[in-house]
Specification:
Helix content: 25-40%
Radius of gyration: 20 Å
Oligomer: single chain
Strand content: 25-35%
Order of helices and strands: EHEHEHEHEHEHEHEEEEEEEEEEEHHE
Distance between the termini: 36 Å
Strand order of the largest sheet: 18-17-16-15-7-10-9-8-19
Amino acid sequence: MNKLRVGLIGLGNVAEGHLRGYQDVDLIEVVSGADPLKERLRQMTEKWRMKDYTDCEEMLKKEKLDIACVLTPPHLHREITEKVAEYGVSVLCEKPMALNLEDAKSMISKCKKEGVKLCYGESYRFLCACRKASEMIDEGVLGELSLLMEILTIGEGIQNYQPVSYYPTGGPGGGGWCLIEHGIHLADLFRWFTGSEAESVFGRGNYSGEAPSTEYLTIQFKSGAIGQLVYNEATYPSDMPYEGIFSWGLGWGGPTGELGSQGWEPHPMSIRVHGTYGALRIFQYANKLFLFGQDGQREVKVLDRPHPGNFGLQMESFANRLQLDQDPEVTGVDGLKALQIILSAYESFKKQRSVPIEPIT
């Protein structure tokens, strides 16, 4: 079977993670990349030995791609995704899918109209520790889920806070770990773990161009479970040394979000999932998983493809399903629903109350 031809649109920091992960995927061949920044384009295409284009439409005309990965700033996702679809090319679109629900819905409709597949790039579903956690939850190891949470107090004080530059001023934004940039991973992951839709949201998010504050999001799921996110990246971590862990995978670090190295993590990120029979602690980037229950605590073995291997597993899944003419494992509708949850936090703060989540069909 012929390999699927892949092109990347947008060659920023996240493209580096994708390309590293794709090295282990035999089903595809990365043939080209497009970016209007000529120096970045030169660096990346020379390093990864692919054809270079400053204009993505020129690439679409010449390369006969099977998949285009849309890795640009999110305010460009709709325009580019819809252009890709017009060329009959399937799309893997990075998170967040868009910055408003109208754009996300239009992307889904356009891809359906043009007969191409739209894969939402929710890479957290393919982090090995998260994937194993989902299997255990589905097997009933934890019983009924009651509480899912992530708390991030991260940074080096307000004086060193650096916002992400590519979110339009006045709209949702913040630093690299804000709700719209990072919390959107958890909005999807919690839906996936619970197998339930969000019923209501209470929260607050930061805006691009404004001073940072603590962000929070409480999701009430129809199953009865609660999802809780609390983020502050303009302060200092308060973890004690024993909270550290040896990271088997790479992580995102530094002001520009480049990939860090394996090694000791004094303040490791983690997700906690609690049920009636047990609980899980998921160290998503360290590639470690721990189960807590009546018999004590034990480490659970996970697949040895740590970050950025999740990007490879995501592409592997998408390519397999394309060849079988099946929908992606994570669809555009999943991206739309995650975005709806995050944007509802902003609506909640304006109204100073919990807001219902309207069903999306």
